[in-house]
Predict the 3D structure of the following.
Amino acid sequence: MENRTDKNSYTIIFAIAMVLIVGSLLAFTASSLKPTITENQRIEKQQNILYAMGVNENDESSANFVSTNDAPELFETYIQKQLVIQDGKVSEDDQAYLIDVKKEQANANAGKARRLPLFVGEKDGKTFYIAPIRGKGLWDAIWAYVSMDENMVVQGAFFDHAGETPGLGANIKQRFFMDDFIGEHLLSDSGTFKGIDVAKGNADPKNLDKTDNEVDAIAGATITGNGVSAMIKSDLKLYEPYFKNLKNN
C-alpha cells in the first residue's frame, strides 16, 4: 500500500501549514510584546536626555543611566519644556521626545519641513538645552543627545550606535570619549557655528583647550569619528537660529 506521506503534495501541504502556524505565532508574539517594546523605547529616550544634562548614576569611569523605574519621574522633574522647531517657529509639545529623528531627516531630504525637538532642562539653577542628532558611522547609524547652554557650549553628551566595531568605533558610548565634549564650544570665536571635529592627531590630547572646536579621536575608529563630526555639524547647526534668537531676547 502506498504511504500517503511520501507524496510531494503531502510535503507541500505540511510546509504551508507550518509556515501559517509559525507566522501566526510570530505575529501574536510581536503584537503582544509591542506595548512593552514601545514603553522601553520611551523610557530609554528619557534616560538619554537626562544623561546628557548630567542626571545619571555615573561612577568614576562608567556611564550609567538613571534606573528605568526612576526615569519617568526624573524626566518630569528636570525637563521643564519640550519644544518643536519647524520652519523657524517654536511650539511646545509634551510628546516631543517621541519624535523620530530618522524620519524627520528623511522628510527633510524629501523637501518637507523637518521638526527639530529640543528639551529645556533645569538642574542646580542652570538651564540646559538638549538636542537629539543622528548620523552614519562605519557600519550603521550613530546618534546622540547633546546638552548645551545658551551660548552653545556643550554641557554633556550621550552617544550610541547600531553596529560599530567593538573596542574601536563602539567606544563612542564610553565615558572617556563622551566626557571630552563637556565644555567644548560649538561656535567659533567670532560667533559663527563651527561644530566639533573628532580630530586624529589632535594637538590637545588632554582636551584642555575647549575653544579649538576639537576633541581627540578614538584610535582605529577614524570613520566612526568622522561620522560623529559630521552629524554634529549637520544637525546641531539647525539649532543655531534658535540660540541666536534666544540671546537677542
Summary: Residues 50 and 74 are 8 Å apart (CA to CA). The helical segments are 8-52, 71-78, 101-109, 175-178, 222-236, 240-248.
